[in-house]
Specification:
Blueprint: H1 4-57, E1 74-82, E2 85-94, E3 97-107, E4 113-117, E5 125-127, E6 129-133, E7 135-138, E8 144-145, E9 154-158, E10 161-163, H2 173-180, E11 185-187, E12 199-202, E13 209-212, E14 216-217, E15 221-224, E16 226-229, E17 233-236, E18 241-248, E19 251-254, E20 259-266, E21 269-272, E22 277-287, E23 294-298, E24 303-311, E25 321-325, E26 330-343, E27 346-347, E28 350-359, E29 364-366, E30 368-370, E31 373-375, E32 396-401
Parallel strand pairs: 4-7, 4-28, 5-8, 5-30, 6-9, 6-31, 7-10, 11-13, 12-15, 13-16, 14-17, 15-18, 16-18, 17-19, 18-20, 19-21, 20-22, 21-23, 22-24, 23-25, 24-26, 25-26, 26-27, 26-28
Antiparallel strand pairs: 1-2, 2-3, 3-32, 28-29
């Protein structure tokens, strides 16, 4: 004879078992849905990368992309300029799911020139230990020796030599267009949304926002699609965080110890105090079309990955344009100076200038370089340079992912 409470226990056990089985079925269904979701996301990311590769292979020219018949995923992309750089905005989507990405892109560097010195004055001279790796276009095929101190002179040259022209190669017209205006939305700083305290962010999918700023930028964070402009000058403090922003002012100064990624455009001058680091891809550019002097001053121990450019003056006024780069620094990229250049730091890239000069405590020397290395081989083939010249572009690559 079965007791009543035994039947009650059996009912309880059956109820618990049914709850457990139901829970297992429920979690199994959730797991299947989650697995389908992650598989879809993976396919969207793969398709997004394919869209980017298609755009690069198509030389960033917008073209319709066919729908993937198997997965139903569609893709599209658009390109737009941002300062001197180009952006590819890629999307892959299906139903309500979308994966987006933004990349800085450019043409792979084929420039093997170490030095291009215009044929306007006397030959190039050297003093101390000088290494020139790459092709050289100079006023004379001979690099003369100069004795300005008691140190041992040692010259290492590797690459072809040719006689230069009286003029520098014409700079990319996009450099001048930057100073004529960039399409943007002018707003006040107070109107910019801040996702976090002191952080200002603007996606590259949005319109570029242009903000009038005070003369000093400090203790503030700007990331993304911004133009920070001043009608007088901008001094960037080392506690400012700037990533992928554009600076525009007559004069721009970076405080000692600053680190960031910027495109800086000025008309009178740019100065980097000691131990400033500008990460890839950064641009320092001065455009001088006035009768006044303009100057780029890069002090001791600075590192720049990108380009340093000073242009705009005619040959008869090239003494008005000056770039001075002190010792113990490094430029990983290219330098273009339609004026006079004092170079005391190494360059892993190419140098274009009308004239070199060197100042010491006792004298000044024309067309002389001392104790430097200009080496194009230390700039790898996959490196994407800032486009100094409007040359035929063949192979494109990604500079940096920004979203």
């Amino acid at each position: 004879m079965v007791k009543a409470h035994s039947l009650l226990y059996a009912i309880y056990i059956c109820l618990i078992v049914s709850i457990i089985c139901g829970a297992l079925l429920y979690f199994s269904n959730l797991f299947s849905q989650l697995n389908l979701y992650y598989n879809l996301q993976e396919e969207l990311y793969i398709q997004n990368q394919s869209v980017l590769n298609f755009a690069l292979g198509n030389k960033t020219i917008p073209t319709e992309i066919e729908k993937d018949e198997n997965s139903g995923i569609e893709g599209s992309y658009e390109t737009k300029p941002y300062g001197l750089l180009s952006l590819i905005l890629a999307r892959s989507y299906v139903s309500n799911d979308t994966v987006s990405s933004v990349h800085f892109v450019g043409a792979r560097n084929t420039d093997k020139n170490a030095i291009y010195l215009t044929n306007l004055s006397k030959s190039l001279y050297y003093s101390g230990k000088v290494k020139l790796i790459g092709n050289n276009q100079l006023p004379s095929p001979f690099i003369e020796t100069s004795y300005i101190n008691n140190n041992l002179n040692q010259l290492v040259v590797k690459g072809e030599k040719a006689i230069s022209e009286p003029f520098l190669p014409e700079i990319n017209p996009d450099f001048k267009k930057i100073f004529q205006g960039i399409k943007s939305e002018k707003i006040k700083l107070s109107e910019v949304e801040k996702p976090k305290d002191s952080l200002y962010y603007n996606s590259f999918f949005n319109t570029t926002k242009e903000i009038q700023v005070k003369s000093t930028l400090g203790n503030i964070i700007f990331k993304g699609n911004f133009i920070l402009r001043s009608e007088d000058s901008i001094r960037v403090k080392k506690n400012a965080v700037l990533e992928d922003v554009i600076l525009m002012a007559p004069k721009i100064t970076f405080e000692e110890g600053f680190k960031g990624t910027v495109q800086a455009f000025a008309t009178k001058g740019i100065e980097l105090e000691e131990k400033v680091t500008l990460n890839y891809p950064s641009v320092i550019c001065v455009y001088n079309e006035s009768l006044e002097a303009s100057k780029i001053k890069i002090k001791k121990g600075c590192q720049i990955t990108g380009a340093v450019v000073l242009f705009g003056s005619t040959t008869d006024r090239m003494d008005k344009n000056t770039i001075e780069i002190d010792e113990d620094g490094l430029l990983f990229g290219d330098l273009y100076c339609s004026g006079k250049l004092m170079l005391r730091s190494n360059v892993y890239g190419s140098v274009y200038t009308n004239r070199f000069f060197l100042k010491t405590s006792s004298s000044s020397y024309e067309n002389l370089i001392s104790d430097i290395e200009i080496n194009t081989e230390k700039r790898p083939d996959y490196y994407i340079s800032i486009p100094l010249f409007n040359t035929q572009k063949t192979t494109y690559g990604v500079i940096k992912k920004v979203l």
